[in-house]
Amino acid sequence: MLVTMLSNWQVKAMAEKYVEMYKSLGINIEKHNQLLNILGQYYGAVYLSQKNRPKKMDYFDFVVSEIHGLRIQELENQRKAGKKVIGAFCIYAPEELAYAADATMVGLCGGADFSVPDAEAILPRNLCPLIKSFYGFRLNKTCPYFQSSDLVVGETTCDGKKKVYELLNELIPTYVIEIPHKPDTQQGKEFWLKEVQAFKAEIEKLTGNKITAEKLKASIELINNKRKALKRLSELRAKNPSPISGLDALLISQISFNDDPVRFTAKVNELCNELEERVRKGEGVTEKDAPRLMVSGCPMAIPNWKLHSIAQEAGASVVVEESCVGTRYFTDLIEPKGDSIEDLLWAIVEKYSKIPCACFTPNDARVESVMQLAKQFNVDGVIYYTLQNCHDYNVEAVKIERTLKNRDLPMLKIETDYAMGDSAQIKTRVEAFLEIIQGKKP
Ligand code: BJ8
């Protein structure tokens, strides 16, 4: 959601350019302008101040500058042509089904502190900031993706989300997919298949379009291509020095939930071509001996850049995110064993049940994934990132830390929210952590 470093008059010009669209979407224009001002300045300070960025990041800067403008205009044009927009919060929502019915799936705003006070007027304060943020955005009508959505798809991952979806449904039609928490079992997978079938029927009802095997196969390929491009980008970050900053890579992952998938995939691949050239020349964004970090834990929805910017400023190179806005989204592809609709739906279940969210129990696959990534990316340490009041990720830190310790890899646990009040304290802790890491280096 946002704008490059725009001066006040530029924000005003953009707000005026799209004012009729915003009015038709029922956006709270005054409040939305405040949001654009804050985010524009934040983006400029965090992103545009970086040195030695790849040239192909220009496209992603442009997307950010128009994320509340042109992209919304595109969605509105699609809606005028009779297509539907489905908003989602979780990577368990099978976007392949939306595209197979000629709909579009977009990520909804849920990564900013801006909307939290509005949510706290209704919700308990001691709730995950991600949940308060998205509910507040619907209440205060400043997320144009919410305003453009014909349906929201939620999921029974954590209790906070599950209960807030009931309240959200009072404000916008919200369909909830039930996610089994023991997906390794045959029983769990069969249950999930029924949920995927029911979601398919819901989308067909919403769009009036039948999801055929042919269309589903095409949309699986569409999203597989997006995941492949993100994986290619991720693998380039394993090089030393990494050819792209952690902040830029995080931004691209965040944008992947909002941009047009065909265009996005092409642009990520173009960026990867440039990064491969950098790797060939041995060029990176940091010195070769900069401490290499993994960030593991809760997803970071746009514009949540707090931890990455602190770590980067402290001299670290964030090289991988074990997160849903990171490796969990693109590690596995959908690989159907046949061409029938049943084969394709099963393949969706198989892929999605491999995403090791902390809502699963037990969740050994996540512990294994962290260890495998630590090796692949040759990390010197892990920052375990958990949002306040997220019990699943907070508790799962115990097992992850224990296993990392056995491999002699240091871990720093940061529990935070979206406000900036604790930035100085996090900075001090990250700097101390980097000193420990440097002290361990031969
Ligand atoms: S698959 S991680 S995107 S649920 S909202 S669990 S932070 S208390 S987001 Fe997630 Fe899907 Fe899992 Fe990934 Fe905790 Fe907050 Fe709940 Fe959250």
Describe this structure in words.
By secondary structure, this protein is α/β, with parallel strands linked by helices. Helices cover 55% and strands 10% of the residues. It contains 20 helices and 8 strands. It has a 4-stranded parallel beta sheet with strand order 2-1-3-4, sandwiched between helices. Helix 18 (364-376) packs across helix 19 (391-406). The longest helix is centred in the middle third of the chain and has 24 residues, at 213-236. It is globular, with a radius of gyration of 21 Å. Residues 1-5 have low confidence and may be disordered. The site of Double cubane cluster (BJ8) has 20 residues, from helix 8, helix 10 and helix 19. Residues 90-92, 128, 130-131, 157-158, 160-161, 298-299, 324, 355, 357, 359, 387, 390, 392-393 line the site of Double cubane cluster (BJ8).
